[in-house]
Write a structure and sequence with these properties.
Chain lengths: ~325, ~230
């Protein structure tokens, strides 16, 4: 879907040329969320901005759906790609509905259709259109403004979204909520997303695959679980942190490690987990109660199985063995 | 007794004004025709110039410097310079040199305010506009100019007030306008005409400034206005 081929950007400085992005090649499949992760100045944002040609590459190719983006008029190209930035960038002179209608208007939709689309997107965000559509951005909270920033990028339903640290400026509570909403949306829409972040927790949560950048180079490109289990080098290991096993636990659901109950018995009031809980919660309960195993029940209190320390250790080893 | 003579002057001036209302109206219209044509031309040229120079810091500095130099030329000297030049087309004195001089004085506030306002548009908004696929003209028309408009109009207000003053001097080169009362008042030692001219000019400047302030509020996008004054 998106393929970068030896993408390079060098800047001329008084001290000679500096490469911001150095021969980056990667491929993001349709419907996949790829997080570009790294410290500031590592080239991740430059890489993103080359895809919609806000930055012109020095060399290398970008293919969108097999088409070389060099051969497309940049203005046309950008109208077909959703773009969300950290500063949100809602236009203060336009209402919420007008902001959402910017790209539809560029594509020549009439006013009625633009309005209908804006109201549809607002109701998807659980923001009542009657309340919200005619407000101005300065009347919105940060969380609402960024939700509308995302809605604006989705206005014409582009297959590709580029998101440049979209949630970095939000407070932690809002950030979690909007990330969860976004994941729910992504599960049904299956957009191809490139997402820039400097936050490993966010990357692990959002990504199908993570591309770690360091000094302009792509150092590792792997699914979160693999990245956490096998950092490619000391830089990646340092970046993902020494608690990477705990981060991995968050990625694994109880249902993946369930074992049959067998002849174990459980007290009625013993703590239990649900199949969709992640293993971090299980680990927390283990530590809290000193258990070796926990019973897993579904929403109608039916016992589905048990989760044991052993099973968790085996599941963690599975990735380690690969 | 000074107070008595002052009172007499007031009464005489009042009578003068009442007797000459049609003439005052006519002079006001002359005045306005010079100012509005000059400011109109200055907006048509100055706003695009102010936008164009945002592309290069060096060119912007040069243009604004030249504008400042024009502002330092006393208006009476500028009229003097224009006489020999415009005499070549038979327009050395009168309406045309008055309009040209006023237009030159109007340039700096309009160009400078446009330049500053466009430069001050949040780079994130520009980035969002480009990233969403706006062309340069769409970006200017839909985002940058609407946001910059209040500051641009503030520049127009300054230009209009300056021009009302400059045009008063233009009476000396036969351009008419309210300055005529002042120049005649001085040459004929007629305090009534002097006061009439000064009063009318003051009121005109205040009225013009107020109506432009109203226009400025009307043309300020709602979302921008509330942000400017929290």
């Amino acid at each position: 879907m998106i393929r970068l081929q030896a993408l390079t950007k060098t800047y001329a400085t008084p001290k000679g040329s500096v490469s911001a992005v150095d021969r980056v090649s990667l491929e993001v499949h349709e419907g996949e969320t790829c997080v570009l992760l790294g410290p500031s100045g590592c080239g991740k944002t430059t890489t993103l901005r080359m895809i919609n040609r806000l930055v012109v590459p020095t060399s290398g190719k970008i293919f969108l759906n097999g088409r070389d983006t060099d051969s497309v008029d940049p203005v046309e190209l950008r109208r077909g790609i959703g773009y969300v930035i950290q500063q949100i960038g809602l236009f203060p002179n336009m209402t919420v509905a007008e902001n959402i209608g910017v790209v539809p208007r560029l594509l020549g939709w009439d006013a009625v259709r633009r309005r209908r689309r804006a109201e549809e997107l607002l109701s998807l965000l659980a923001l009542p259109p009657a309340d919200c559509a005619d407000r101005y951005p300065n009347e919105l909270s940060g969380g609402h403004a960024q939700r509308i920033g995302v809605a604006r990028a989705r206005a014409v339903d582009p297959p590709v979204l580029l998101m440049d640290e979209p949630f970095a400026a939000l407070d932690p509570v809002n950030r979690e909520a909007i990330q969860d909403e976004f994941l729910r949306m992504q599960r049904t829409l299956r957009k191809t997303i490139l997402f820039v972040s400097h936050d490993i927790d966010e990357a692990v949560k959002m990504a199908d695959r993570i591309a770690i950048f360091h000094a302009g180079r792509l150092v590792q490109f792997a699914p979160p679980d693999e990245l956490l289990a096998h950092p490619a080098d000391t830089f990646v290991a340092g970046f993902v942190g020494s608690d990477r096993t705990l981060k991995r636990l968050r990625l694994i659901r109880v249902r993946e490690v369930l074992a049959p109950v067998g002849d174990r018995t459980f007290a009625m009031n013993a703590p239990h987990v649900s199949p969709d809980d992640d293993l971090r919660r299980v680990a927390a309960l283990f530590l809290e109660h000193g258990n070796e195993s926990l019973v897993c029940v579904d929403s109608s209190s039916r016992v589905l199985g048990v989760v044991t320390r052993e099973a968790i250790a085996q599941r963690l080893a599975l990735q380690d063995a690969q | 007794m000074p107070s008595l003579s002052a009172k007499r002057t007031n009464v005489e001036t009042l009578f003068f004004i009442l007797h000459n209302l049609p003439a005052i109206g006519e002079r006001t219209l002359e005045h306005l025709s010079i100012v509005s044509v000059a400011v109109g031309v200055a907006i048509i040229t100055g706003v695009p110039l102010g936008i164009a120079i945002t592309q290069s810091r060096r060119i912007a500095d040069t243009v604004l410097y030249l504008g400042s130099i024009v502002m330092t030329i006393p208006s009476i000297a500028l009229f003097g310079i224009l006489i020999p030049i415009l005499s070549k087309i038979g327009q050395g004195i009168g309406w045309l040199p008055a309009v040209i001089a006023a237009m030159l004085y109007a340039q700096l506030p309009i160009v400078r305010n446009t330049y500053t306002a466009i430069r001050n548009v949040d780079p994130a908004l520009r980035s969002a506009a480009i990233g969403m696929g706006m062309s340069v003209s769409q970006r200017l028309a839909r985002v940058e100019i609407p946001i910059a408009l209040p500051v641009i109009i503030a520049g127009v207000r300054v230009a209009v007030v300056i021009n009302i003053g400059v045009t008063a001097i233009a009476a000396y080169i036969g351009a008419g306008g309210l300055g005529t009362f002042i120049s005649r008042g001085i040459s004929q030692s007629d305090i009534r005409q002097l006061i009439t001219g000064a009063l009318a000019l003051g009121l005109l400047a205040i009225a013009a400034d107020y109506s432009l302030a109203w226009l400025q509020r009307r043309l300020t996008p709602r979302g921008v206005a509330a942000r400017a004054s929290p």
